[in-house]
Amino acid sequence: MLVATFTFAQTLTFTATVSGANEVPAIGSTGSADVTSTYVDATGMITITATYSGLSSGLTMAHLHVVPAGANGPVIVNLMTTTVHAVV
Question: Starting from the edge strand earliest in sequence, which strands make up the sheet with 45-53, in order?
Fold first, then answer.
């Protein structure tokens, strides 16, 4: 008897550009960010990379919401710790 198990791992990648126009209501901020997230189902690992620019001060918060476009929704994941690491 031959028994074989197959595993089909998937890697899912999502990209987004965020700006003050995405806020509800929209704000006139010059800040924006390009965000890429990757999920690997074989490991359950999520990697999030963000590149931001145009902020009038240092980065103070980063988090994810779950909500349809055009509405406000709750924060589901806080991406910041008490220490901010910046690469210049």
Answer: 11-19, 32-40, 45-53
Could you state, in order of their start, the residue ranges of all structural domains in the chain?
11-78
- For residues 59 and 86, the answer to whether their CB atoms sit within 8 Å is yes
- Among positive and negative, which fits the CA dihedral 27, 31, 32, 38? negative
Burial of 19 (0-12, 13-18, 19+ CB in 10 A): middle
Single-letter code of the amino acid located at 14: F
pLDDT in tens, 31-81: 999 999 999 998 999 999 989 999 888 888 888 888 888 898 899 988 886
- Residue 65: name the closest of 75, 53, 52, 57 by CA: 75
Asked whether 34 and 51 are in contact (CB, 8 A), the reply is yes
